[in-house]
Every structure is written in structure tokens, then in C-alpha cells.
Amino acid sequence: MTQITFLHGARDRLQAVAAWLARASGEARPVLVYVPNGERSEKLDRLLWTHAATGFIPHCRADDKLAAETPIILASELDQPPHDGCLLNLSDEIPPGFGRFQQLIEIVSGEDGDRLPGRERFRFYRERGYPLEARDISGGT
Q1: What are the residue ranges spanned by the domains of the chain?
Q2: Contact 3, 104 (CB under 8 A)
Q3: Rounded to two decimals, what is the model's pTM?
Q4: Are 38 and 137 in contact (CB under 8 A)?
Q5: How far apart are CA 72 and CA 56, in angstroms?
Q6: Which H, E and C letters describe the chain, residue by residue?
Q7: Which fold has domain 3-136?
Q8: Which pLDDT score, from 0 to 100, does residue 54 have?
Q9: Which backbone phi and psi does 42 adopt, to 5 degrees?
Q10: CB under 8 Å to 29, separation ≥6 — which residues?
Q11: Distance of alpha carbon 35 from alpha carbon 78, whole angstroms
């Protein structure tokens, strides 16, 4: 069963996602980032190129020819995921087919537009019996 981790209280959701992905990248951990919103995807892409002052977080889009070699993949759909390890949900909805992944990460800011849908997703997973972990990252990611 999918292990679900909620990291809540982020000051800025995209910054927290970039910091989390930087750690995952440092561990060479493959992560599929579900980001169906085109504008949000573009912002995250730019942020991952500039997150570290001396470099970038290696990533590409799911349809890129380097996707098989790249640990962090940005995907607008989950029809044919390249792996079933870790899924980071950057959607405000329940990601389709999330149950096929070993781990699901949800990063939620304190802003109402983010926090309220995050609570609904938490409730959805809890009511279906998924193992949940919740950590407050308001003091930093």
C-alpha cells in the first residue's frame, strides 16, 4: 500500500518542493512530479534550474528523450509512469492512479488556496486507510 507523507505549513509551496527535490536528487532518488497545471509546471521548471546558487536540480519532462536517465521527471499526466517509486503531487487534486506508487509526497503551504484542498486530500487518503505521516515544515523545509 502506498505510504503517504504530507509536509504541511510550507511558506512557499514551490520553494519547498524545490528544496525537497534537491535532497532527493542528492540521494539519486527517482521522483515523478505530477504537475498537470502548465503555468505551475513552467514555474517549477525555472525554479529547478536556479534553486542552487551554483547549479541546478537535474530534471526533465516526461516526454523528453533523457527521461529514462533523469531522476526527477515532471509529468502532466500519469498514464504511463516511468517508475512506481516516488510520486510528488503538485496538483490540487488526488493524482490518478497514485495507488500504484510506493510513496506519495504532498507538500502543502499555509495559504488557504493550497491548505484547504490539501486537507481534503488528506481526508480522502485517511478514509481509505492509507498509511499517513504528517510533518510540519513551517520552520523550514
Answers
A1: 3-136
A2: yes
A3: 0.94
A4: no
A5: 12
A6: CCEEEEEEEECCHHHHHHHHHHHHHHCCCCEEEECCCHHHHHHHHHHHHHCCCCCCCCCEECCCCCHHHCCEEEECCCCCCCCCCEEEECCCCCCCCHHHCCEEEEEEECCHHHHHHHHHHHHHHHHCCCCEEEEECCCCC
A7: Rossmann fold (3.40.50)
A8: 60
A9: -65, -45
A10: 71, 85, 86
A11: 10
Q: Rounded distance, CA 123 to CA 56, Å? A: 35
Question: All 3 cell numbers of residue 109?
Answer: 503551504
Residue type at 104 in one-letter notation: L
67-115 tens-digit pLDDT: 989 999 999 999 989 889 999 999 999 999 999 999 999 999 999 999 9
Q: What span, in angstroms and rounded, lies between the C-alpha atoms of 63 and 51?
A: 23
Residue type, 138: S
Query: How many residues belong to the chain?
Result: 141
